Amino acid sequence: MKVAELVEDVIADLPGAPLVTVRRALLDATRELCTRADVWVSDDVPVIVAAQSGYPQVISPDGGEVLRIRRVTVDGETLRPGIDYEQPRADSVRMLRKPAASTLYGEVASRPPMTATRLPDALIRYREAIADGARYRLMQQPNKEWSQPSLASYYLQRFELAINDANQHATHGHARGSRRVKPRRFI
Q1: What value, to the nearest 5°, has the Cα angle with vertex 148 and ends 146 and 153?
Q2: Quick check: helix, strand or coil at residue 71?
Q3: What Cα–Cα distance (Å) separates residue 53 from each residue in 8, 57, 94, 103, 136?
Q4: What are the pLDDT digits (tens) for 155-179?
Q5: Which residues, other chains included, contact 61 with Cβ-Cβ below 8 Å and sequence gap of 6+?
């Protein structure tokens, strides 16, 4: 999905807003959504390179900025944070136990860089939430012809609800559908 497509979604509600400002607000909203809810997760990809060296690095396989490691595996065994490794910063990791392999696979959460022109396909389902976050940011700006503080709070509420839903979705392993429980028989 191109950022320019999202600009078209938002610009109709904000007459007079410069395209560059709208684009920046969209990227800010996207980055906040990804940071708070782990909506862009790459799974079963190389996550840590040079694990055996003294300077292992965390990588994002899809060209985004790494936020956090969600899971690391070595030969089918999941490493435990705080016991096998630590992640003091988003882009670095410290191995507490040296693994046998140099490249470790797993799951990493990322966000798009501020210079992104395309957003990953994983964010398509959050298109409306991203647009709501951008509308909120733009409408709350004081002394602009597109300012609408009362409507900004509405879009903030929608954006926060979307973040909560996305966070819950990420917590449950990005599963779709719902769990079905067979009701108890009534006697």
Answers
A1: 135
A2: strand
A3: 47, 10, 10, 11, 45
A4: 999 999 999 999 988 887 655 555 5
A5: 42, 45, 46, 47, 108
